[in-house]
């Protein structure tokens, strides 16, 4: 087929599943790619690769519920790009999971993995389910069925899942066991974020929060912000938000506001973070915490603070609330929490945004350590792991900071420049044909 001008047929006509969503997370990601393209030099001819996931698997996950009925859930595993190595990225269980969301999350994994230079492509998975409504037995059956269904794609040298929202070490243990049973041999390296007794790594549970803290410290040094006494607001008090809050509080900062689905709480003197962590463990959320006042959810974004850490879901900081933000530093613990419009508003207000694709890369970095340890069956001390993590995060952040200064671009675009050059250079060297 030729175009009306007689030129070669357009190579960019999009598959239907890529056409629909221009506002959601995938649309947000595409805008980020468009912003990096002018900085890719001759590699820009490969940029379309970044705009199409390499593989998408949609699976039906049927399970028998405790009451004897059969329920069906929709699951996904998307491998966005495998130019630099096997797919790597978490698995999310959430009632709002969509294909578009998993595509975006897998793409951000490609960028993140390249930004910290771990030898992976990007992938992500998920099931549209509210796991809080399932019993433990139902959750196990769901996890095992899903693992078998995506068994076509995953494997220690093919694609390695890990925890994300509402998944944890227990879910990874079931995934590892199911995959191992299906292949007939224990394969610890098929997932990371496992319990330490099953080939997991010391430090993985804390790694994402520790990475958030590490880049926060580096940015504070570079901008003259004193952490001692700095006020911090955190959205999402799960694995990432909870640990990040703990580390900032230990460094002398005051965690003045916290929000999750169960409530928004405020204490101008700083909440007692260990007590709040214990409360969340016992009660499932920050709501009802005695050591703080209740605040209206919509007032959270305008809280007086120096540091804001979105650590929940995508699309939380939008054009509607970005103008209210008073923080000097936004550290994206979550993936995709800021829309492109909001990014511009924050930039115009002089707010420094440490983007997800570097700020929350600590988790996958220690997942990489876990995978390496599993291959060699030789395990490192927690101090060794934390020291290596901090070094990788500091070096990656310093490089990105320099690129941002050089090109006078945001840290997000700078991270995309570093990462997309690595991905596309790998693609170019490998070539296209089998
Ligand atoms: N775990 C990891 O290693 C990594 C995670 N991330 C990203 O960090 C983010 C958080 O993940 P993680 O901490 O693992 O997940 P968790 O499931 O441990 O915690 C999620 C937290 O976010 C809260 N939350 C969810 N939706 C909302 C909402 N709409 N408003 C306010 N709070 C909300 C949850 O509260 P509630 O229970 O009340 O809903 C919970 O406190 C995600 O974007 C994830 O992709 C990034 C890198 C690695
Ligand atoms: O640890 C991993 O492999 C991936 C974690 C993850 O899903 C993420 O960084 O968003």
Automatic annotation (TrEMBL):
SMART domains: ELFV_dehydrog. The record marks 164 as: Important for catalysis. InterPro entries: Aminoacid_DH-like_N_sf (IPR046346), Glu/Leu/Phe/Val/Trp_DH (IPR006095), Glu/Leu/Phe/Val/Trp_DH_C (IPR006096), Glu/Leu/Phe/Val/Trp_DH_dimer (IPR006097), Glu/Leu/Phe/Val_DH_AS (IPR033524), Glu_DH (IPR014362), NAD(P)-bd_dom_sf (IPR036291), NAD_bind_Glu_DH (IPR033922). Residues 201-431 form the Glutamate/phenylalanine/leucine/valine/L-tryptophan dehydrogenase C-terminal domain. One of its GO terms (molecular function) is nucleotide binding. One of its GO terms (biological process) is L-glutamate catabolic process. Signal peptide: none annotated. Keywords: NAD, Nucleotide-binding, Oxidoreductase. It comes from the Bacteria. NAD(+) binds at residues 208, 239. SUPFAM superfamilies: Aminoacid dehydrogenase-like, N-terminal domain, NAD(P)-binding Rossmann-fold domains. Substrate binds at residues 88, 112, 367. The active site is at 124 (proton donor). Pfam families: ELFV_dehydrog (PF00208), ELFV_dehydrog_N (PF02812). Belongs to the Glu/Leu/Phe/Val dehydrogenases family. This is Glutamate dehydrogenase.
């Amino acid at each position: 087929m030729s175009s009306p001008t007689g030129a070669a047929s357009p190579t960019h006509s999009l598959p239907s599943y890529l056409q629909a969503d221009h506002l959601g997370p995938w649309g947000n990601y595409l805008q980020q790619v468009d912003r990096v393209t002018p900085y890719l030099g001759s590699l820009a001819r490969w940029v379309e690769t970044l705009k199409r996931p390499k593989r998408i698997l949609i699976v039906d996950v049927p399970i028998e519920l405790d009451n004897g009925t059969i329920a069906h859930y929709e699951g996904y595993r998307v491998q966005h790009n495998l130019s630099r190595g096997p797919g790597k990225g978490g698995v999310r269980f959430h009632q709002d999971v969509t294909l578009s969301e998993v595509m975006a999350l897998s793409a951000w994994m490609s960028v993140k993995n390249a930004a910290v230079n771990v030898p992976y492509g990007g992938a992500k998975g998920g099931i549209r389910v509210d796991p809080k409504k399932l019993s433990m037995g139902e959750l196990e059956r769901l996890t095992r069925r899903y693992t078998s269904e995506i068994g076509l794609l995953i494997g220690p040298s093919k694609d390695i899942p890990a925890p994300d929202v509402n998944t944890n070490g227990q879910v990874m243990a079931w995934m590892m066991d199911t995959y191992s049973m299906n292949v007939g041999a224990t394969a610890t390296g098929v997932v990371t974020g496992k319990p330490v007794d099953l080939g997991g790594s010391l430090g993985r549970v804390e790694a994402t929060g520790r990475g958030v803290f590490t880049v926060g410290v580096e940015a504070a040094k570079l901008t003259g912000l004193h952490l001692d006494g700095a006020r911090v607001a955190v959205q999402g008090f799960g694995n990432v938000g909870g640990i990040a809050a703990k580390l900032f509080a230990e460094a002398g900062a005051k965690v003045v506001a916290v929000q999750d689905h169960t409530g928004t709480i405020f204490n101008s003197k700083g909440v007692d973070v260990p007590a709040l962590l214990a409360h969340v463990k016992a009660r499932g959320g920050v709501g009802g915490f005695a050591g703080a006042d209740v605040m209206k959810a919509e007032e959270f974004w305008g809280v007086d603070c120096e540091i804001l850490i979105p650590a929940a879901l995508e699309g939380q900081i939008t054009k509607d609330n970005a103008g209210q933000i008073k923080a000097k530093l936004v550290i994206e613990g979550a993936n995709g929490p800021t829309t492109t419009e909001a990014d511009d508003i924050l930039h115009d207000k002089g707010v420094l945004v440490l983007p997800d694709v570097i700020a929350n890369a600590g988790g996958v970095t220690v997942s990489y350590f876990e995978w390496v340890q599993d291959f060699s069956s030789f395990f490192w001390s927690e101090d060794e792991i934390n020291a290596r993590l901090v070094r990788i995060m500091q070096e990656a952040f310093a490089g990105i900071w320099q690129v941002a200064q050089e090109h006078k671009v945001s840290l997000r675009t700078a991270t995309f420049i570093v990462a997309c050059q690595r991905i596309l250079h790998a693609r170019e060297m490998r070539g296209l044909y089998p």
